Amino acid sequence: MSHARFQEDFFGRDVLEVIPELLGKYLIRKFDDGTIHKYLITEIEAYRGEEDLACHASKGRTNRTEIMYHDGGHLYVYLIYGIYWMLNIVTGSKNNPQAILIRGIEGFDGPGKLTKHLKIDKSFNGENLVTSDRMWIESNTEKINVGFKTYPRVGIDYAGEIWKNKPWRFILSDNL
DNA sequence: GTTAAGATTCCG
DNA sequence: GGAATCTTAACG
Description:
3-methyladenine DNA Glycosylase, Chain A; 9-stranded antiparallel sheet
C-alpha cells in the first residue's frame, strides 16, 4: 500500500471526535539514519480548551501553549519534571486549544518512555504531521474497528474534581 | 532575579 | 514514598 497519511481534515475536528479514531492507528517515525518504524497507538488522553483546568491552555495563551491555538495536525512537545518529553498532537480549529497526549505505543508504555525511544525533543514542537518527513500518522488497514476503554486522566490532581474525573484517557482493548 | 510546581519514571 | 532535574509562569 502506498501512504495513507492523515491530513488536516482528520486533526481539524474536536478532540473528543478525533481521539477514539486515533487509537489503533499508526504513528510513523523516520529516524535520522533513514529507517522508518511504525508504532500502534495504544493509549492517549484528551485535553480540551481553556475551560479544561487540566489543559495547559487553561492559563491562557502563552509562548508555551501557543502551538495548541493553531489548527490541528501540529505537534505540541514540552519537557516535564526536567526529564521527560511529552508528545502531543494538536487537534481542533484555529484558536481552539486542544491536544492529545500520546501515553503509550505498542512496545513502549508511558509518555516519557516512548519519547525517549522515538528520540523526540524540543525540535519537534510545532512539527506539522501533514508535511513532516520524520513523523506522521497512518491509517490501519488491518484493524478497522478497534475496541477501547476510557478512564480518568493521570497526574492532574490539581485540576479539580470535575476535570479530574473526565473519562478522557483512552486505552486500546484486545480487539476484535 | 527568584521561586514553586509539574500531563513521569525509577528505585527502595 | 522520594528523588531526579529544568522549563514555565507568577511573582516582584
